[in-house]
TrEMBL record:
Its main location: cytoplasm. It is found in: Cytoplasm. Specifically hydrolyzes 7-methylguanosine monophosphate (m(7)GMP) to 7-methylguanosine and inorganic phosphate. The specific activity for m(7)GMP may protect cells against undesired salvage of m(7)GMP and its incorporation into nucleic acids. Also has weak activity for CMP. UMP and purine nucleotides are poor substrates. This is 5'-nucleotidase. The keyword Magnesium applies. It is an enzyme of class 3 (hydrolase).
């Protein structure tokens, strides 16, 4: 039905379920669809030219934004907590206090550095962050069909928005729930706003924020994209979901994590740096998308 699903990088545990879900979503049309996506390593690439792509926190580690001591401490925190984040030997509940510690410490370091708002745009421009191949097709076609795109990110919302804006795809149908900086009257970071969002508490943010977005009401069908098992909870804010299709990007430690991903996501993409499969699925959901989706702009 969708040639891209036959690629060697694609793993599907229950193809019949995926097929049935796609048929139901296709019959309902674009007017019933919403797309929910993580950002770092989901809409952005995980790696490029042999190097790992920076996430939105990493982008702030410029020497003219933070000092060397801060960068070293951030790296130490990553080396300590990232293995905990991605291990399959701990439950989400067991991981959560560690994630709170990690995010809290990073935010405290950034606040101490008094990061300047006016330098964020330059930091993004000078970074090596890159959206996945096929991103323009993805963003533009959702806009064309007036399908809301809800981005849930445990990263830094201000940086995330700037990345999308500099790629010229920050459209009106996009809604972002993330960790936003709170700047003082001089444009210096003094705190982070609201509830802390990390990789394993997105269900709380979904229930408290996403459920109140009027644009998502009356759209019970969901295409969900994420790179973490915690991302599966991003659709928890939907009051009466009908059909949900989940796509998981398995970017690293493939053999160690493959079983958990295959048992959790409907479709697993193994070290695939493109949005080809989500774009093909969108094309299948509404044939009127066919012409615009066929012209891949990478």
């Amino acid at each position: 039905m969708i040639p891209e699903l036959s690629r060697s990088s694609v793993i599907i545990r229950e193809f019949s379920r995926v097929k049935e879900t796609l048929r139901a979503m296709q019959a309902a049309g674009a007017g019933s669809l919403q797309v929910i996506a993580d950002f770092d390593s989901t809409l952005t690439r995980f790696a490029h030219n042999g190097a790992q792509v920076p996430n939105t926190h990493n982008i702030l580690e410029k020497k003219w934004l933070v000092n060397e001591d801060c960068s070293e401490k951030v790296m130490e925190l990553s080396n300590t907590y990232h293995p905990i984040e991605i291990t399959t030997s701990l439950s989400m509940e067991e991981k959560m206090p560690h994630m709170v510690e990690w995010w809290t410490k990073i935010h405290e370091l950034l606040i101490q550095q008094k990061v300047r708002k006016d330098l964020l745009s330059h930091a993004v421009k000078e970074s090596s962050v890159i959206l996945r191949d096929g991103y323009k097709v993805f963003f533009d076609c959702l806009l064309e069909r007036q399908v809301p795109l809800l981005i849930f990110s445990a990263g830094v919302g201000d940086v995330l928005e700037e990345v999308i804006r500099q790629n010229h795809v920050f459209h009106p149908n996009i809604h972002v729930i993330s960790n936003y900086m709170d700047f003082d009257h001089t444009g210096v970071l003094r705190a982070f706003k609201g509830q802390l969002i990390h990789s394993y508490n997105k269900h709380e943010a979904a229930q408290s924020h996403a459920a109140g977005l009027k644009e998502l009401q009356g759209r019970p069908n969901v295409l969900l994209l994420g790179d973490s098992l915690g991302d599966l909870k991003m659709a928890d804010g939907i009051a009466e979901p009908q059909n949900t299709l989940t796509i998981g990007f398995l970017n690293e430690q493939v053999e160690e994590r493959k079983e958990a991903y295959v048992n959790s996501f409907d479709v697993v993409l193994v070290q695939d740096e493109t949005l080809d499969v989500p774009n093909a699925i969108l094309r299948s959901l509404n044939r009127s998308l066919g012409e615009s989706l066929s012209h891949t702009n990478r």
